[in-house]
Amino acid sequence: MISAITAIISSCIGVFYSFGGKPKIVDNIYGQAIKLYGDGIYANDSILKVGASKGTDIVIIIIAVILICTVLIFKNKSYVPFLQCGILSIILYSTTCLIVGNTFNRLFLLYVIQFGCTFFAFIFSMSYLLKNKSFESNIYNKKFTGTALFLIISGCSVLQWLMLILPSVIYGKPMEIIDIYTSEPTFVIDLAIILPSTIYCGIMLMRKKTIAYQLAPVLLFLLTGVALAVISQTIVQTSLGIVLNIVQLFGMVILFVILGAIALYLNIKLLKNLK
User: What is the pLDDT of residue 142?
Assistant: First the structure.
């Protein structure tokens, strides 16, 4: 509940708070001129980052309300532990990006509370799921090969970030989307956590390991949440005048939207087998 409430508060401030500020130009550490948003809680963030942050905030408000409803109203439904854990994973992802990816702002302590509560709530929820068998007993003898392959493929989709990372590593030049920042937390989370988690779950699902059946719905919810965030981010960024080229549009938007839609379908199909 604290995770959901703090997420709603911080996200509403992110979306709606304004003091009438204007954009301003600053130089980053590489000597490049970067336009800052200049208004609201994200005043000292770049236009690109603000579009992503505000777009994510909109999605977080919606799913945090859903989380509160599941806790207060639908807590006896068999799918709720998976939905709850999936939503917490989305909030945890976005909060991590806020803390280490955005410029320090006056909501920092609220972000810390939000991160801490979400982190421990996710750990406790995930622990509960992994020590139980939530599905009908006959399901644990099925490989769900299609879902397993999808998890592996969707996880590998984040390898596209290497196209932005490797030129910087090899030639020592700043990343194309680095703006005023020193790193991009999305790359770290996707490559260090999401990629191995989805590959592991896919392999374990094909080997009929119980842990994979319990973990798969959570990862599928996370992929769906990422798709929703990407759609919202693109809409907000477009409203701020950011135009993606065709390669960026496919790799950073369309691909994740397709994966999210497939993830939702597979998740519904899987959760129909709950006890």
Answer: 85
Contacts of 175 (CB under 8 A, 6+ apart): 164, 165, 167, 168, 184
* Residue 116 host element (H or E): helix 108-130
CA dist., res. 11 & res. 101, Å (int):
15
3-state SS, residue 76: coil
Alpha-carbon torsion, ordered 214, 219, 224, 227, to 10 deg: 180
CA quadruple 179, 54, 122, 106: dihedral positive or negative? positive
* Chain segment 95-137, per-residue pLDDT in tens: 999 999 999 999 999 999 999 999 999 999 999 998 888 888 8
Is 84 within 8 Å of 50 (Cβ atoms)?
Answer: no
Amino acid at the residue 127: S
Residue range 145-182, pLDDT digits in tens: 999 999 999 999 999 999 999 999 999 888 888 999 98
Q: What is the DSSP letter of 194?
A: I
At CB < 8 A and 24+ separation, what contacts does 12-19 make?
A: 12/57, 12/61, 13/40, 13/41, 13/107, 14/40, 14/41, 14/42, 14/53, 14/54, 14/57, 14/107, 15/54, 15/57, 15/58, 15/61, 17/41, 19/43
Contacts (Cβ under 8 Å, ≥6 apart) of 208:
140, 141, 142, 143
Residue 235: HSE in the Cβ half-sphere, 13 Å Cα cutoff: 12
Tell how far CA 264 is from the center of its chain.
Answer: 15
